Amino acid sequence: MSQEKPIRVLVAGLGNMGRSHALAYHNDPGFEIVGLVNRSTPALEPELQGYTIHPDFATALAELKPDLCSINTYSDSHADYAVAAFEAGCHVFVEKPLATTVADAERVVAAAEKAGRKLVIGYILRHHPSWTKLIEEARKLGPPYVFRMNLNQQSSGPTWATHKSLMRTTSPIVDCGVHYVDVMCQITDARAVEVRGMGLRLSDEIAADMYNYGQLQVLFEDGSVGWYEAGWGPMISETAFFVKDVMSPKGAVSIVMDPNAKSDDIDTHTKTSVIRLHTAETGPDGKFIRPDQDMQMTGEPGHQALCDLEQAFMLRAIREDLNLDRHMADAVASLRICLAADESVRTGQPVRL
């Protein structure tokens, strides 16, 4: 791989994720950054300050002719940028969510297939060894499952400003929910059949038709059920802001969070601290046969290291011609569930899939 020509990449969007992905490309000899795209000129890490920032994606795409476009802009531009990149003959990495509608997500996948190029979606938890372990242990328990998951963020200052920008197009249960619904789907393999949602606008600083607190419930055809909760803003409680718990008739597997962790710390969103395995089996006396097992997740990657792993996977997908059919289908499926939850919030009715 080191003897092959580096993949020439154009990075669009220089928010938290875009800068992290740009650093991953900068530090990986398999890539060569040919340009950055952002409407403004943000403060960048020293490693990125030597690259030219282009204000317009279409112009940069036409002029620079990259091999790969990394799309880390606000979600309402993801589909159009990705399709344009495929039509220009590029591979595409796109941050989650893949699009803001199922039709647009399917349009992106169709464009990738027509162009014969690779599409990788930014499901960062798929590259995390601890989350892989959580999924593995949950699958050993067997269905039906109860999924209990949330990620609430008590945000203020610049973080709240970022959240308000995100909510111009996407609600929290869609923006973050696709990650955790994807985890549910990897564990059960069953098709989601019904989705319910509820939400509430807790701030006058967001649009009247947007909500910054929401919860979704999803029912699967194997009998599994799950919920996901997300809230953003200065009013959000720090109590039980992080719950990642899977139960089945045979027991439960859970992430035990550091009690001193803060909800707006980006590393908190992926670090697991401890995975606790509980076995439901009891002996003749009705007492548990074995104690809970705590698996210490020492040395796990932080946020930047995870972004590095994601882009290493992107490089492998291109170099080794990996089959990404399931990866793309899963991204559309998790988005479909979260958008159905958003529809349920707005209509007050459950959505059958």
TrEMBL record:
One of its GO terms (molecular function) is nucleotide binding. Residues 7-123 form the Gfo/Idh/MocA-like oxidoreductase N-terminal domain. SUPFAM superfamilies: Glyceraldehyde-3-phosphate dehydrogenase-like, C-terminal domain (SSF55347), NAD(P)-binding Rossmann-fold domains (SSF51735). InterPro entries: Gfo/Idh/MocA-like_OxRdtase_N, Gfo/Idh/MocA_Oxidoreductases, GFO_IDH_MocA-like_dom, NAD(P)-bd_dom_sf. Coiled coil: none annotated. Signal peptide: none annotated. Residues 137-232 form the GFO/IDH/MocA-like oxidoreductase domain. This is Putative dehydrogenase.
